[in-house]
Every structure is written in C-alpha cells, then in structure tokens.
Amino acid sequence: MTNWVTNAWYVAAWDSEVDVAPLSRTICGTPVVLYRKLDRSVVAMRDACPHRLLPLSMGIREGDSIRCKYHGLKLGPDGVAEEMPMKSEAVNRRICAETFVVAERHRFVWIWVGEKDKADPALIPDLWPCSSEGWTFDGGYYPVACDYRLMIDNLMDLTHETYVHSSSIGQVEILEAPIETRVEGERVFVTRWMAGIDAPPFWRAALGKEGPVDRWQICQFMLPASVMIDVGVAPVEAGSTLEAHDQGARGMVIDFMTPETETSHHYFWGMARNFMIHDPGFTARFKAGQGAVFAEDKVILEAQQDAINRNPGLKLSAYRIDEGGVRSRQVIKRKIAASAKVEEPV
C-alpha cells in the first residue's frame, strides 16, 4: 500500500510549464508525459512507448500526436497507435499507451492517476483565492527529495519559522502565541493570533509602514495533499480579528505536494494576495522573496529525509506543536484505508 491517496486530483504542473514540447513528470509513482494539443488542451499519457518502453517524452511531436524516437511508432493524443514502425504494416489499434484525465483550474494542470470513472472535476480542491476577483496569484515549483508528508508537517507547524526563516518571516512571538488545532471532516485547521507585535521584515515590506501590528496564521490542510495558509499583518488600530482581517496586508499561501516516489515529491507553491494586485513588479519581487523562503524549507526537509533514511531504527516524535501535521496524516491514512476497503473484492 502506498502512502498517498490514489483516487484524487493532484497538481501535475503549472499551466505555464505545459506547452508543445513534451514534459516528463512522475506522479504518484507513475511516469507521465504532458503536452498541449494545437487547441491548447492538455494531454497526459504514460511516459513509455508501448513498443520498447522508451520514454515518450523523448519523442517527436507531429500535430496533436507523438512519435517515439526509437522506432517511430506514432500515437494519437488518445494514446492509440496511428502509424506502425514499418509504414507498410497495417496499424494495430489495440496498441496503445495509457492516458490520464486532466483538468485546468487555478493556474494549475491537475491529473487523476486513479480510476478514470471517479475523476470528478468537482473534487478539485477549492483554492478560491487563486481565481477570485480582487486577488492576484503567482508562484513557483521545487522538486523536493523527501516524503510529501514531511512538507505537510512543515506547513501545518509554523513554529519552525522562528529558526528556519529568521531573516524573513520568523520571529519569537510565533513560539509564544497559543495555537488551536481542530479537525472538520477531512480538513485540519491550525490557527494562531499574535496581537500588538512588530512585523518581521517580509511583512513589514508588504505593509509598507512601521508600527505595531496584529499578525495571523490560519493553516488549512485539504486532501489529498494541499495546505492553504491565510496569513498577514494589519496595523493594530485597524481592529482586525481572527474572524475578520481584510485590513492591512493579507495573503493566502497556496501549497500543493504531489508525491513522486515514497521519498520525493513535487512542491507547487505560491501566494494569492488582495493588495497591490495591479503591480506586476511587486508580484515578481514578492514571488522571489517567497521562493527564497521555501528554498530554506527545501534544505531542511531534504536533510531530514536523509537523516530518516540513515536512522531506520528511529521514529519521528510528535509534540504539541506537531498536532496539525499529526491530524493531517491521520486524515490521509483514513482515506487510504477507506479506499482500500472499497476496492477489496466481495
């Protein structure tokens, strides 16, 4: 049994990553090739020629089809053979490569690697700030050599900011503020409110003024592997609360962890914000700053995975600050178990 939910939508790529040229990416242990047809819709196919298994991502695009670069077997966007290696040979349409259901939403290309008949677009996580009027959204991608659940642990426990991100968003008040963790169905929430503090460098620059602020962090885990974090600061005099905080500088950190293997994943990160949304220069600078912050997480988590590999007799410990990650792992585990039970033969 794998450590991830199979029948679920995962982010395969940013919309800008998928174009005419084939893109190779392993999703939940499955090698996939992605490309756009002439009408700009996306094709997702198993990245293995059904002839000699050469990756199709090495192939040659011809119209909406792809030709294997080894012996020239040509496959249509539906994965079915269109032309044999010997052009005089009759086409055997039983020769085909597996294809996958895809969808585009919130600037992402989503893929369903499980049972096709269960691929309901309504199940795509509601990343509403990424597509809502009055907000702007951008971000980036990192391959990370660690179990995707370690990144979920990281994002659901922001106490690490004090030390890992001390030069940007970290501050000691994060360790001092009480946190609340709750589970609502298949979602997990961790909330923290920091009243009357000095804003850290990253947020002081975003707010554009000095003075004491109220700061909030509301982490939300959603299946199969996304974390959305409502973050920001507002001047104390603005009167923000945990329930209503549109004043000041507010953002939604969007994180989606797509498993690659048991010890590696694709990390799609970004931030939607409702301030300075018409300033592309600020967006570029903000993205660069966020990318630098997440690069610090990448270093820590890859070192953690390496230590786990080198200490097979030791297990992770969980303290009070880890409750959000622990609860999220429990939700994932229950979903996997429930799926396995449904799939068992009667």
Automatic annotation (TrEMBL):
Pfam families: Rieske, VanA_C
Name listed for the protein in its UniProt record: Rieske (2Fe-2S) protein
InterPro entries: Cholesterol_7-desaturase (IPR050584), Rieske_2Fe-2S (IPR017941), Rieske_2Fe-2S_sf (IPR036922), VanA_C_cat (IPR044043)
Transmembrane regions listed in the UniProt entry: none
Endoplasmic reticulum keyword on record: no
PANTHER family per UniProt: 3-KETOSTEROID-9-ALPHA-MONOOXYGENASE, OXYGENASE COMPONENT (PTHR21266:SF60), IRON-SULFUR DOMAIN CONTAINING PROTEIN (PTHR21266)
Molecular function as annotated in GO: 2 iron, 2 sulfur cluster binding; metal ion binding; oxidoreductase activity
Superkingdom to which the source organism belongs: Bacteria
SUPFAM superfamilies tied to this protein: Bet v1-like, ISP domain
Domain Rieske, chain residue ranges per copy: 9-111
Keywords: 2Fe-2S, Iron, Iron-sulfur, Metal-binding, Oxidoreductase
